[in-house]
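Before going further, learn to read the protein records used in this course. The integers have meaning only within a learned vocabulary of local backbone shapes. The record below shows the convention in full.
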Amino acid sequence: MTAHTETHGSVTTVYKVSGMSCGHCEGAVSGEISELPGVSSVKAVAATGEVTVVSAAALDEEAVRAAVDEAGFELVGRA
């Protein structure tokens, strides 16, 4: 899977987040990232530490980092 793909006017980016261990963690991270402008879906998977974000345009990585920090976790980078 590529870390950044564009299809039908949307961008899918996969990020690596450390510290997620359960469904509550996934929900916290998803909730914060989904509030960023242009985000249409977020899927966090604690088992892999991957967070897949679909957005209207490429997101500013610092904005994603701030959202993940707000949820109490650390953005490692793109997967």
About this structure: The two ends are 9 Å apart (CA to CA). The chain is about 30% helix and 40% strand.
